[in-house]
Amino acid sequence: MKLVNIGYGNVIAANRIVAIISPESAPIKRLIQEAKDNGRVIDATCGRKTRAVIITDSEHIVLSSVQPETVAGRYEEEPNKKEEL
After folding, report:
1. With contact defined as beta carbons under 8 Å apart, do 72 and 51 qualify?
2. Which residues, 6+ apart, have CB-to-CB distance to 27 below 8 Å?
3. How would you write 1-16 as a 3-class SS string?
4. Considering Cα of 76, then 13, then 17, then 70, what sign does the dihedral take?
5. Cα 3 from Cα 11, distance rounded (Å)
6. 12-40: b or e for each residue (b if 16 or more CB lie within 10 Å)?
7. pLDDT at res. 24
8. Alpha-carbon gap, residue 19 to 46, rounded angstroms
9. Could you read off the pLDDT tens digit of each residue along the chain, which spans 85 residues?
10. DSSP string across 54-83
11. pLDDT in the model for residue 80
């Protein structure tokens, strides 16, 4: 199973990721609030500002304090590291 680092020692299974998005828009803020109300939010920010929202195939929402571009880069970068070994 491939894991992606989402910051501060937290990882998520790469095959479960549906989308990595910015939390700035109103629809995403509503999506986060609805998920909080239903107990489907995993806060991996370690008390820092939320900069990326990761949506999983199980409809859980993972909040990360790392930029979406950084998470996406780590997601794409992992297979190349394994090929070099």
Report:
1. no
2. none
3. CCEEEEECCEEEEHHH
4. negative
5. 6
6. beeeebeebeebeeeebeebbeebeeeee
7. 96
8. 21
9. 899 999 999 999 999 999 999 999 999 999 999 999 999 999 999 999 999 999 999 999 999 999 999 999 998 875 555 554 4
10. EEETTS-EEEESS-HHHHHHHHHHHHHHHH
11. 52
Q: Which two tokens stand for residue 70?
A: 């950084």
Give the pairing of strands 52-56 and 17-21.
Answer: antiparallel
Candidates 51, 47, 43; CA nearest to 70 is 51
